Every structure is written in C-alpha cells, then in structure tokens.
Amino acid sequence: MSFNKKTGDISGVPIVASDPVIYTVTATGRRGHDTATVVITVGVGTTNLALGKPATESSTYPYSIPLLLVMQ
Fold it and tell me: How high is the pLDDT of residue 34?
C-alpha cells in the first residue's frame, strides 16, 4: 500500500493481513487545517476451494486467498 501526499490517494494491493493501524491525517489549505484519524485493517477474506479430482499425498493445488481492506 502506498500513500500519495499530494493527492491523498491510498493505493495498491495488500499482500499480507495486518492488525489495525491508526493513522493521523492532516489537511492544510488557504482557510486553515483539519486533522482526522483513519484506522486501516487488512483482513483475510473468504474463499471456496473446490478440487476437480481426488487429492493424493503428492497432489499440489495452487490457490489464493483474497484480502479485505477495511478503513474506518
């Protein structure tokens, strides 16, 4: 994840889950400034895994688990 200081955009794709992180964001303009608190949590989403054939001891099935980004 990355934060663009000029535009305020938060972008990217989270690749690991994380506990809540608290960020303090301050905006400054011609009429003054204001501060807000943002909490970002990346949690593990849900996935359904269905195998097309019976698994054996040596079977390997690649899969991915979606991550869920929560901003408060």
Answer: 93
Residue 41: exposed, middle, or buried by beta-carbon count in 10 A (0-12, 13-18, 19+)?
middle
Structure token pair of residue 7? 């535009």
Question: Would you say residue 24 has pLDDT above 80?
Answer: yes
Residues 6+ positions from 66 with CB-CB distance below 8 Å: 44, 45, 46, 47
